[in-house]
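User: My collaborator sent over this chain with a note saying "see what the structure looks like." That's all I know about it. Can you take a look?
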Amino acid sequence: MKGIIAKKIGMTQLFSEDGKILPITLLKAGPCKVVQKKTSEKDGYNAVQIGFEEIKEKKVNKPLKDHMKKSNEYFRYLKEIRDFEKDEGEIIDVDIFKNGEKVKVTGLSKGKGFQGVMRRWGMAGGFDSHGSTSHRRVGAIGNRLTPQKVFKGKKMPGHMGFDNVTVRNLEVVFIDKDNNLIGLKGAVPGPNGGILIIRGE
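Assistant: Without extra context I'll predict from the sequence alone. Here is the result:
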């Protein structure tokens, strides 16, 4: 399965040949370098670890510096992609994808902090009339004598967002190899500047 690390730039739009507006997400993808190759004989599975965004040596801690010394370069981000046939030291560019190809994008969604049930789960809330004390509350969450507990998985207030999300079947609209840019039709997880992994379907 081929893949590359990318950084989200933002969204824009393009016009198709028949005049329709296409929502486009612009990503800076690569170039990435293969830092480590894992094999089923040695590690139990086949994968490659790739690095993105080269940084200065002084910004890397000692364990990672030793880990990346074979590549003679140091990277801010390291990600693994399974079953990708590449050798150590190889460079991965946006040209591993083609126009019209379907890909899947994985990244962390936007964090929204601690939210109540109306925002987090879309619940209707309580009465809005005067005297009501449960406008935005959860309501009943359990039973009485039996079973004397709140069931696991109950929809309640809590942390919302900042989850690992994968969006599938995104179409590659254009590729600019000179500037390491790739345009995908539709939205991808996370804020502008967020790190994503683009993989083939």
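A starting point for your reply to your collaborator: Helices lie at 62-67, 117-121.
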